[in-house]
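Q: what sequence does this backbone want?
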């Protein structure tokens, strides 16, 4: 909801636990709830903005007003829900096909037709090679400057500069090949070449009843 021009594909799992009629009913219910949620959000934002504009000292709330207006301008496209049975490989392939069909839609993703410079592909291939090498630690974390030096050792990337690498990393972050939190000060110099490591770490740290589990430790 906070990212401009977001596209969301709702996915309903555990189809194997429902009757066919239930799947249709639940799908309709979920989409109706999402529509109602978005309508309520739009109404709330408009209400907050009106309150700020009608306040006695509106100049004191300019920053807050600008943030709300920015959120109000964020469009959100909700695609039709895809219901899958995660225990059936055919359904996983069906979901994969649905995702690929949507990302190739130029109306949803205008940038899909953008032609990337050859060096983007060259750096991408080199990073994949580094991530798969024996010297790469399991966590897949690498210092940005060190990554630049490793890439620059390759003959065809000898002229690669830091600024260009950062542009390429932003692209690779968007497509999910790497994770680079450049906006977080403590992480801006770290590139995660193995994004799945973060998933594993979060699964260990963020879990149901986490607070109760921690409180049970003497």
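A:
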């Amino acid at each position: 909801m906070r990212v401009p021009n977001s596209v969301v594909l709702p996915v309903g799992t555990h189809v194997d636990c429902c009757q066919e009629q239930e799947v249709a009913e639940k799908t309709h219910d979920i989409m109706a709830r999402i529509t109602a949620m978005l309508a309520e959000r739009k109404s709330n934002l408009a209400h907050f903005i009106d309150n700020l504009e009608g306040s006695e000292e509106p100049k004191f709330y300019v920053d807050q007003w600008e943030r709300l207006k920015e959120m109000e301008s964020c469009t959100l496209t909700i695609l039709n829900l895809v219901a899958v049975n995660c225990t059936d490989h055919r359904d996983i392939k069906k979901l994969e096909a649905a995702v690929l069909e949507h990302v190739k839609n130029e109306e949803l993703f205008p940038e899909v037709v953008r032609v990337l410079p050859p060096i983007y592909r060259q750096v991408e291939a080199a990073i994949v090679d580094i991530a798969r090498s024996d010297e790469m630690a399991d966590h897949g974390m690498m210092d940005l400057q060190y990554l630049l030096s490793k890439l620059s050792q390759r003959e065809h990337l000898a002229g690669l500069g830091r600024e260009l690498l950062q542009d390429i990393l932003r692209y690779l972050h968007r497509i999910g090949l790497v994770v680079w939190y450049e906006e977080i000060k403590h992480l801006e110099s770290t590139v995660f070449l193995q994004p799945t490591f973060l998933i594993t770490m979060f699964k260990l740290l963020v879990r149901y009843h986490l607070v109760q589990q921690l409180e049970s430790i003497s």
